[in-house]
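Per reviewer request, we include the raw input and output of the structure prediction for the construct analysed in the revised manuscript.
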Amino acid sequence: MSPTRIPTLIAALALAASPGNAGADDKSSAFSLGGLLFGDLYHLPNHHLPEGDGATGVVLRRGYLTGNAKFDSGWFGRLRVEVNQSGEFETYDFEADVKDAYIGYRFEHHQLMVGLQPSLTFDFIESIWSMRYLMRTPADLQGVPSRDTGVSLKGRINDSWSYRAMVGVGAEFGAESGDGENTMAALNWALNENWSLDFYVDHERRPGPNDNTTGQVFAGYKAEGLRFGAQYLYRDRDSNAQGELASAFVVKNVGEKIRMTGRIDRIMEPSPKGDNISYIPFDPTAKATLYLAGLEYKVSDNLYVTPNTIVISYDRNDDGARPNTDFYLRLTVFVDFE
């Protein structure tokens, strides 16, 4: 990204994140423009990486400028641009890319979408977790792409069951597109108005002996003032170590403007992406357990401030050594005009 374009992009994001441009409540408009930003003030008292040990800094993890179109005929679309700071601790560069670019059509209880769009691996989990600004879902964090370019079909089978299916073409397009042709399918069972079970499978075809197959089950609960969920994911990789993880979280209102959250992720094989994970790298040689705790304060309808801490503890690796525990102290700010 050219340095001369950075001020222009930031100005565009700021313009989008203004009440006059939100447009979400304008029912007569077929087009809306919105934006959001989130980032951290952080200090790391301890870390397995030398450059992370003792680091202190400020980072803009994400900024989105989003245009949505919706028409009475059933057609809709989205174009979302992402800006972020990537790099090592205390040293970051701005990057910009396309996050979403799709068109879709709704008919009866179904919708068809074509283009760069959210993948199905953790779209439902995110709808229960709903705090991606604080921490990505476990599979997302461990390197499963959050976007794919392709064709998806979603809909309702009956009052209890719904489905999601997608074929990704593996195009190198957008911020986090998949690497290969990917076939995804999911079934969701709504046991009642609060409880849901979600079953997901996929198969990604990659060049050479590098195919990936994923199976996942997730149980979620969502009610006024309380949400929690648990998932198990197994990923069979032809080319390297298997991926296996389990996770549980809870988000609970404890006041009119305060809610607390806690999450535990257990990585039962060394992280496949390891030190290449942005902002929260994992030691790639050992199994790990991540603990997250935070207390979110709603300053206004558009501004949230969340003191939080992350601790990643490691098992002993194959050499018998235990990597240093990662300890993050963060103040996360979330500005939302979408």
